[in-house]
Amino acid sequence: MTQTRGERNDNPGNIRHGSNWQGLSVKQPDKDFCTFDTPEYGIRALSKVLTIYRQKGFDTVRAIINRWAPPSENNTGAYVAAVAATMKVDPDTHLDVSDYSQMYPLVDAIIRHENGRNSYPRTTIDAGLALAGIVP
After folding, report:
1. Is residue 9 part of a domain?
2. Is residue 136 part of a domain?
3. Number of folded domains in the chain?
4. Taking the mean position of all CA atoms in its chain, how far away is CA 73?
5. What is the pLDDT of residues 72-111, one digit of tens each?
6. How far is CA 93 from CA 28, 62, 100, in A?
7. Which domain covers residue 14, as residue numbers?
8. Are 18 and 102 in contact, with CB atoms under 8 Å apart?
9. Cα(116)–Cα(113) distance, rounded to whole angstroms?
10. What is the C-alpha separation between 21 and 87, in angstroms, rounded?
11. Which one, of 27, 20, 22, lies nearest residue 41 by Cα?
């Protein structure tokens, strides 16, 4: 199976360069997207971004994805619909991403949309969330 860009970069959320994330690889071969030492650090960064969004008032699937994947670069409507369907929530339901039971499915849905699949076992996602302080 060919790895996706997010998988190759250990960055399943496809986070762009711009922040000095914990776990960034010394080498950054991708000019657009961060490369992390492990997928757990990429998942940690993904969840940290979502936590920052919550602090700024982005707390629905629609608001989060419109910020995460702006319409100027993406088919944001399709992205919102896919994440909401994967999570089995209305796109305008308020989420509390500090709650593992809401963060995990959101992270899973973003990974699925960004990579076309989620190739990470639950233990990897849980380890990444734990690095961000989000535990069951």
Report:
1. yes
2. no
3. 1
4. 17
5. 989 999 999 999 999 999 999 999 999 999 999 999 999 9
6. 37, 9, 16
7. 5-131
8. no
9. 5
10. 27
11. 22
